[in-house]
Amino acid sequence: MIPYIIITLIIVIILSRSIKVTADQERFAVIALGQFKKLKGPGLLFKFFWSEVEWVKLRLGDSGELVSPEFGRFQDKDIPVVVGASTKVGSLIKIIGFEENKIVAHLDSEQRRAYVCEKCGHENVI
Question: Whole-model pTM above 0.90?
Protein backbone atom coordinates (compact mmCIF):
# COMPACT_ATOMS: atom_id res chain seq x y z
CA MET A 1 0.00 0.00 0.00
CA ILE A 2 2.74 2.47 0.99
CA PRO A 3 4.74 2.00 -2.27
CA TYR A 4 1.61 2.88 -4.31
CA ILE A 5 1.12 6.07 -2.34
CA ILE A 6 4.77 7.06 -2.83
CA ILE A 7 4.66 6.32 -6.57
CA THR A 8 1.39 8.27 -6.93
CA LEU A 9 2.88 11.20 -5.02
CA ILE A 10 5.96 11.26 -7.26
CA ILE A 11 3.79 11.21 -10.40
CA VAL A 12 1.63 14.07 -9.08
CA ILE A 13 4.72 16.15 -8.30
CA ILE A 14 6.22 15.55 -11.76
CA LEU A 15 2.95 16.44 -13.51
CA SER A 16 2.40 19.57 -11.42
CA ARG A 17 5.85 20.89 -12.37
CA SER A 18 5.43 19.95 -16.06
CA ILE A 19 2.06 21.52 -16.87
CA LYS A 20 2.00 25.16 -17.99
CA VAL A 21 -1.17 27.10 -18.81
CA THR A 22 -1.26 30.28 -20.89
CA ALA A 23 -4.14 32.62 -21.59
CA ASP A 24 -5.01 33.92 -25.05
CA GLN A 25 -2.97 37.09 -24.51
CA GLU A 26 0.16 35.18 -23.39
CA ARG A 27 2.84 33.06 -25.08
CA PHE A 28 5.97 31.24 -24.00
CA ALA A 29 9.17 31.98 -25.93
CA VAL A 30 11.18 28.75 -26.10
CA ILE A 31 14.91 29.43 -25.71
CA ALA A 32 17.37 26.57 -26.31
CA LEU A 33 21.12 27.04 -25.94
CA GLY A 34 20.61 30.81 -25.69
CA GLN A 35 18.75 31.12 -29.01
CA PHE A 36 15.07 31.64 -29.75
CA LYS A 37 13.37 28.54 -31.19
CA LYS A 38 9.61 29.24 -31.26
CA LEU A 39 6.56 30.68 -29.53
CA LYS A 40 4.22 28.27 -27.73
CA GLY A 41 0.67 28.83 -26.57
CA PRO A 42 -2.04 29.64 -25.77
CA GLY A 43 -3.52 26.73 -23.89
CA LEU A 44 -2.30 23.76 -21.88
CA LEU A 45 1.38 23.01 -22.46
CA PHE A 46 3.77 20.37 -21.15
CA LYS A 47 7.38 21.17 -20.25
CA PHE A 48 9.57 18.56 -18.66
CA PHE A 49 11.28 20.25 -15.72
CA TRP A 50 14.57 18.42 -16.27
CA SER A 51 15.02 19.71 -19.84
CA GLU A 52 17.66 22.34 -20.65
CA VAL A 53 15.14 24.44 -22.61
CA GLU A 54 14.09 27.74 -21.01
CA TRP A 55 10.56 29.10 -21.35
CA VAL A 56 10.00 32.86 -21.01
CA LYS A 57 6.41 34.05 -20.50
CA LEU A 58 5.41 37.06 -22.63
CA ARG A 59 2.16 39.01 -22.32
CA LEU A 60 0.41 41.65 -24.38
CA GLY A 61 1.61 45.04 -23.17
CA ASP A 62 5.10 43.86 -22.12
CA SER A 63 7.80 46.35 -23.05
CA GLY A 64 11.16 45.66 -24.61
CA GLU A 65 13.85 47.25 -26.72
CA LEU A 66 14.36 46.96 -30.48
CA VAL A 67 17.92 45.64 -30.88
CA SER A 68 17.82 45.15 -34.67
CA PRO A 69 15.16 45.53 -37.38
CA GLU A 70 14.17 41.86 -36.85
CA PHE A 71 14.73 41.31 -33.11
CA GLY A 72 13.48 42.80 -29.87
CA ARG A 73 14.86 42.18 -26.39
CA PHE A 74 12.24 41.13 -23.83
CA GLN A 75 13.33 39.94 -20.38
CA ASP A 76 16.96 39.84 -21.60
CA LYS A 77 16.11 37.45 -24.45
CA ASP A 78 16.27 38.33 -28.18
CA ILE A 79 12.99 37.39 -29.89
CA PRO A 80 11.90 38.00 -33.51
CA VAL A 81 9.50 40.94 -33.90
CA VAL A 82 7.45 42.66 -36.57
CA VAL A 83 7.40 46.46 -36.10
CA GLY A 84 6.42 49.49 -38.12
CA ALA A 85 8.89 50.97 -40.60
CA SER A 86 9.31 54.18 -38.61
CA THR A 87 10.67 52.44 -35.50
CA LYS A 88 14.43 52.89 -34.95
CA VAL A 89 16.88 50.48 -33.38
CA GLY A 90 17.19 51.27 -29.66
CA SER A 91 13.55 52.37 -29.33
CA LEU A 92 11.30 50.94 -26.66
CA ILE A 93 8.57 48.74 -28.09
CA LYS A 94 5.41 47.21 -26.65
CA ILE A 95 3.83 43.85 -27.55
CA ILE A 96 0.45 44.27 -29.25
CA GLY A 97 0.00 40.77 -30.69
CA PHE A 98 1.53 37.47 -31.75
CA GLU A 99 2.06 35.87 -35.16
CA GLU A 100 3.21 32.29 -35.71
CA ASN A 101 6.77 32.66 -34.44
CA LYS A 102 7.08 36.42 -34.14
CA ILE A 103 5.88 39.14 -31.82
CA VAL A 104 3.90 42.03 -33.28
CA ALA A 105 5.02 45.23 -31.59
CA HIS A 106 4.76 48.99 -31.96
CA LEU A 107 6.63 51.98 -30.61
CA ASP A 108 6.02 52.42 -26.88
CA SER A 109 4.43 55.86 -26.55
CA GLU A 110 5.76 56.39 -23.00
CA GLN A 111 9.43 55.73 -23.94
CA ARG A 112 10.45 55.47 -20.28
CA ARG A 113 13.33 53.34 -19.10
CA ALA A 114 13.74 51.94 -15.60
CA TYR A 115 17.03 51.19 -13.91
CA VAL A 116 18.06 50.06 -10.44
CA CYS A 117 20.18 52.43 -8.35
CA GLU A 118 23.55 50.85 -7.51
CA LYS A 119 23.81 52.59 -4.11
CA CYS A 120 20.45 51.83 -2.53
CA GLY A 121 18.73 49.36 -4.88
CA HIS A 122 15.53 51.32 -5.59
CA GLU A 123 14.14 51.53 -9.12
CA ASN A 124 14.32 54.83 -11.03
CA VAL A 125 12.30 55.65 -14.14
CA ILE A 126 13.68 58.11 -16.68
Answer: no
